[in-house]
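Chain X:
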Amino acid sequence: MDIVHLLPESVANQIAAGEVVQRPASVVKELIENSVDAGATKISVILKDGGRSVIQVIDNGKGMSPKDCEMAFMRHATSKISQATDLFSIATFGFRGEALASIASVAQVELRSRREESELGTKYTIAASEPQGCEPVTMAVGTNIRVRDLFYNIPARRKFLKADSTELRNIIQEFIRVALAHPDIEFRLSNNEKELYNLPAAILRKRIVSIFGKNIESKLMPIKCETGLLSINGYICIPSHSKRSHGEQFFFTNGRYMRHPAFHKAVTEAYGGLLPGDALPSYFLYFTVNPETIDVNIHPTKTEIKFQHESDCFVLIQTSIKEVLGKYNITASLDFDREGDVGYIEPSPEKAGNYAPGIRVNSSYNPFSKYGGGGRSTNSAITPAFNDFYDSHRKESVEGWEQLFEGLKDSANEAREQQLEIEPIAENNEQTILWAKNHDRYIIASMKQGVAIIDKRAAHIRVLYDKYRMALDSRLVGKQSVMFPETIELNIEEALILTELLPQLANMGFNCTQLSDTTFQIESVPADFSEKSAIPIIMQLIETFNTGEKIAERNKERIALAMAQSTAIKASDPLSDIESESLIYDLLNCDQSHLTPDGKRIITILNNSELQNLL
């Protein structure tokens, strides 16, 4: 009996839909790109329930004939290519003829379209790949396509859709990409009868500002490079506008949005040491190349492009950005006094020469009284705690600590090469805590087995994270009213994120009132809040969640971490002896003292034998 057979057309379309139509945002992307290819100058996107119930795209493009309306929903029906060689010179968006067929296989679709030379338009309906009817209709020139109940016939797929707010944010990302690619086209977007974007046709700079807000306008630097291989236009942002999350990094090639990790690396490397280690530069870069030198058909969603001369383009991108940064005098500063440099060592206040080491002790001060420490000696309270910490972790994970030691030897050698100096250690080193003068970043604490090196900012992040995480669970955070409420202006995407975060922020002590679609007022902050402004923390929280991920997923942990990172001391902030001891004590009372919540090392321990091997 034969076992090989052809799949029914509807099943084949649903399989294709699995590649092309992953969520409502995929539908919006395909339909908008079709409108652009149709020569539209005005495109409106109308949503209901974040695209879950309705996605409607209306354009004033050239429209289709009755026959075209039927053919458009057949697999591999296209007006863009006619032979295989055309695949290597594609200058349009859709060309494989799978999008509409895939959408119609998992939704109910109504298409209305009219050409300029026709008196009447055509209304064509199809559901689950089954045509429902075709009839003439009165309408304006262009196309109006309405997609209802996405995945209605595949419940297993539909249940995996995220919350409406999350799907809406994904749609906004796709909408923004096409709107940035074509600033000469007017775009509108609304959800549940509320207009979110109204973008008139404009020059590129105005289009960027209309999407990302007025604050970005003064941060934009134009870039232009013309070569026979690659032409580059657009804008990069000054380093201070960098962010810790993706969201303002855009590449476009011949009018098509794309992702390109290698070119992103070229951009970030061009900024060199101008950015913090975990920050990403913002850029809007438009490439023009010969279509025959790229391949846009290497991914179902067509967001990846293969370049024939990738290495040469890499160099051109990097060189062009460096030139712009130099033109605007944005370069790493050179301080010949070396103060603040990684290798800078704060001069000792002592006179040169030999002197006896000593310990500064205030016997009348007990910094741990608030922890119920009674009359304990300050240093004697710390050292046993470190010894216990060391012993317990040695017993629990000897192999892990040994690996940690191996990795630290290189760091120690590097520190020695940079002439990192540590204050003199007294004979009774079990009762001494010392501070390295390298950026004031580390606390060096002595112990009977050796020394512990603590990254003080990482330690403070761990302490604050535990505090904020507990506060979110208990909802017992005290709050204080702000005498002069702060107003924060956001773009649409940021405003949607903050709206979702408002209940969690209230639990943390931040009360924000929404004054308009994009304007919020901060009216209260946590009782122990010492920052001058709450806006930087709110912005970092928004940045943390600006990923399209559902906010409810691990939101308490992420909010607590973002809060801790925002309010923790900087690596260069000086601490007094008492403040350092207090920080160490708080750290050792945390459940996970050795790592930050995001997995960064806080404490490194060198035992005496390892110290001897390093010297």
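Chain Y:
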Amino acid sequence: MSRDGKIFIILALIISIITWKLITIQSSIGVYYWDIFLYLNNALRMAHFGSSDTLYLPPFLPAILSVFFRLGFVSEYTLFIVGGAFYILGSVGMYLLLRLRFDEIESLVGALTFASSTLILAWAVTGSTDVPAISLSIWAIYLTLLAKRKDKRLYYLAFPVAMAAFLTRYTSALIIIPMLLVIIMDSRPKFREIIGGIILGILFYSPFGLFFYRNLKNPLPFLGQFTATASGSVTAVNPGYNPDSLYYLKHFPEYLSAHPSNNYMLIINPSSAGPNPLAYLIIAILIVGVILYIIHNRMILNRVKSKKLIMFLLLSAALIAVFGRLSYALAEVLIFFWALSIYWLLEDQQLHNLDINIAMITWFLCFIYMHSFHPVKVDRYIITILPAIAYLMPLSISEISQTLKWEHARHMFSILVMAMMLSSAAYYIWGMPQDYPIVDAENEAAQWLKAHDPNYHSKVIASDRGPAFTWYLKDYVFTRRINNNELFYKLFYELKPDYYIYWSTTQPRIQDYKIIYNRSGVIIAEKIPT
């Protein structure tokens, strides 16, 4: 077996062990996050086992789940396993992508940097769409680069995979920018394969577009979301509202390596957990590597035309000036031309790996600009930049080792960083909680209601957390709240539910309702017959 094959098997074994441990932990915790219940309920709707009113959400992950649901595996465990499969797929894809430039050991380190990052570990198997989407995006970029370098027929695969990433998480649409740049850098483009790939991508979308049209009377329901996102229109009422454009940069250390916690909310929101000291060592390696890369390639600038250099510097200054201030829709256009200016600046220098370098830095900038501009800041959103950071790790190792001028420096340094990343991952995983009482309380309340009223399917049920109880009861539960929000209060009494499930520790009574269940903070109130 080749060395590449052996390293690949080592990577697969390490990632499989991590995946097994994460699935075990997540299975004992269950599902808490609101959005994940939405995807579970959409999968039930697609399998014709339940109902949902959020079918405008990305449909690819629910579609996969619905297949397993139809086979009889209607369980949260199915969701965790599918999430684990995407995590493995992304880690393996990261290795193959890195192998386009680096040797086997360096690529292994880069893949493990991606797979061991705190933010990836926190969300890998939860059932959210973030890791599946980034895994498919990795493969889309890998196939595009491979098509440019080796076999143009791979464009037939690259575009459908990019479409799958988009249908998993709509923000993945930005991956088309680095893909387009790679195609522009192709000196021998095969337009038949490129056009064919685009057509196959559209065909891949077709059944989902038909699904949207049948259920929503709109084959493109995401267009409204793009408009709202591009304008940054959101109110301070949103729980993720945070206008600080530097939020993700400030919490970057925690995304690489954070302290574990017994509080599950600090696991899925590591920015609140505090960074592990290893995070600063990782960042130091990356910064030193970038500085050395610039130093080692500084002579190139002496050979470029001054007009092209001036254009690059002006676009660079503009990018810095608009960070977090300009709508990301306009910023992406600026990033695209900035990346093109690098290509025009260096295209005559016959540099190896210019295509992958530009693709990865563009990848990073596209997503950091989008998420930093938008006023809703949620830690998991920035998972999108981690493949670019993983690429930077073997690059830094290579540059530092080159500077040390020691024969074994590269591999010794690679092993050291690999050990550091795996120890960070082990520390984080083994410190994760094994349960989350809120999840258990909601599930127990749902099971109690099933036993209390076997005919609950014929009743109207409302809850503060409607998506969660829709999943547990396998029947539609309206999301209604009795609080200071006049709109929710009005909607509640217009609905007049037979049962209302809510969270409270003060046992508040509601007019015309009696409390029939009160355990662990979950209350079920039944409408008093009139």
